[in-house]
Amino acid sequence: MQTMIRKGYLPYCLPDITEEEINEVVDTLKSGWLAKGPKTIEFEKQFADYVGAKYAVGMNSATAALHIALCAAGVGPGDEVITTSMTFAASVNTIVHTGATPVFVDIDSNTGCIDPEQIEAKITSKTKAIVPVHYAGQACDLDRIYEIADKYNLFVSEDAAHAIFTQYKGRMIGCKPKGTVSYSFYATKNLATGEGGMLVTDDEEIANKARILVTHGMSRNAWNRYAKGGSWMYDIEEPGYKYNMFDLQAALGMVQLNRLQEMQSRRETLAKIYTSGLKDVKAITLPSIPEFTTTHSWHLFVITLNTNLISRNDFIDKLNDRNIGTSVHFIPVHQMTAYKRMLGGQILELPNTEKWFENIVSLPLYPTMTDEDVNYVVNEVKNILEGV
Ligand SMILES: Cc1ncc(COP(=O)(O)O)c(C=O)c1O
């Protein structure tokens, strides 16, 4: 197929914001209440109902939610927390923030998610928790992970930054969670509020602790102290954090939540076009979805190059020359300077993680992409690979 380079740059990612979101934010601006207030509380309720959890606590990011989850579960200095290196730094930084030590387990080389069969070998008497990451919108094998967690009495804090709408064995991630589940509403995510996050749990004690920790450790309902009937009196029960969601985010979030099914359907259509357009290209491997991921959120569409005729970096450059934005999810966390320093020269055996990183590319995928956009990417991927 002949290359006709498109005029405009196709970004790797764009949020899907309509007049509805804009109007809702403007209404909130006019309401006089910008901070955490009634809209945050309403969004928390709607989100908990949507995923099927008892409690939801709005935060300013998934990073905050991941940190608070571990704090609320009592993870601290001297503890070890098992996680994956094939993730964004936030999943691991937040373990370090509690004073605990992250322990990396390799990924399943088919899915990019933590390999549950390699977890037990890394458990020691110091292990306190597991942080599995639902990579790209694929579900981790939760039954297996919770089976191990139950056996060793470990807390599970699921990182669902990519997994709003993902279903495991027919159940929404976050439905009746046995531990905690943290979501991201960052600008690139399937539900976007610019910055934002949510922690869900069925554990009342964890939810109560989280609510207190996200607003400095203030006693409950202190957000309301400037409204009529609110009290100026508050107490600090613990030295907490300033991590709460606020009403402008929640206003955006509620409209996005209402539109989630529609945005998800579009993601599914685009993923189908990629899959049927690229399935016969021998030089790439398409995402492999295990049976237990009954719904993939299609947060990312990650392809793996399996040819040595072109390097991953050259392939990305050639896509960029054709005005196609891409990304790489992820540079393994253990290869980052801070973690190399922390490891003090210790070499980790994470062969699947390292191989995965060498060959992956995330193609653009977001609801406002047109069929023409996605077909252009398909054709240019083929053109580049046929030309090497
Ligand atoms: C897997 C994963 N976990 C956590 C985060 C952190 O999310 P946030 O930016 O909402 O803190 C991200 C963000 O990209 C992520 O990809």
UniProtKB/TrEMBL annotation:
Entry keywords, A to Z: Pyridoxal phosphate
Residues bearing PTM N6-(pyridoxal phosphate)lysine: 189
The organism's place on the tree of life at top rank: Bacteria
Active site: 189 (proton acceptor)
Coiled-coil boundaries: none
InterPro entries per UniProt: DegT/StrS_aminotransferase, PyrdxlP-dep_Trfase, PyrdxlP-dep_Trfase_major, PyrdxlP-dep_Trfase_small
GO molecular function annotations of the record: pyridoxal phosphate binding; transaminase activity
Keyword Transcription regulation included in the entry's annotation: no
One of the protein's GO biological processes: polysaccharide biosynthetic process
Family: Belongs to the DegT/DnrJ/EryC1 family.
Name under which the protein is recorded: dTDP-4-amino-4,6-dideoxygalactose transaminase
Native source species: Paenibacillus methanolicus
